[in-house]
């Protein structure tokens, strides 16, 4: 369902629209929950880059994705990267 929503948002609003980016972040959460950590990281990175551009570094939505990346990095054993995110 997230893939379907993402395709629709990208078509309607483009890849950098904030609604598209929220779906990208949600897809990252799903991938992390499924243990697909590499895919999750790609989704989080994409969402983070877009959110930083759209909302800035300190917006709560941007920080939600920063936190998600921190959790992911900790799960991957990338503790230095996790610490930077947290």
UniProtKB/TrEMBL annotation:
Listed InterPro entries: NLR-like, TPR-like_helical_dom_sf, TPR_rpt
Pfam family for this entry, one: TPR_10
Protein name: Uncharacterized protein
Keyword tags: TPR repeat
Organism: Elaphomyces granulatus
PANTHER family: AAA+ ATPASE DOMAIN-CONTAINING PROTEIN-RELATED, ATP/GTP-BINDING PROTEIN-RELATED
Ribosomal protein among keywords: no
SUPFAM superfamilies: TPR-like
Family annotation (PROSITE patterns): TPR, TPR_REGION
Transmembrane parts of this sequence: none
TPR repeats: 21-54
Keyword Ribonucleoprotein carried by entry: no
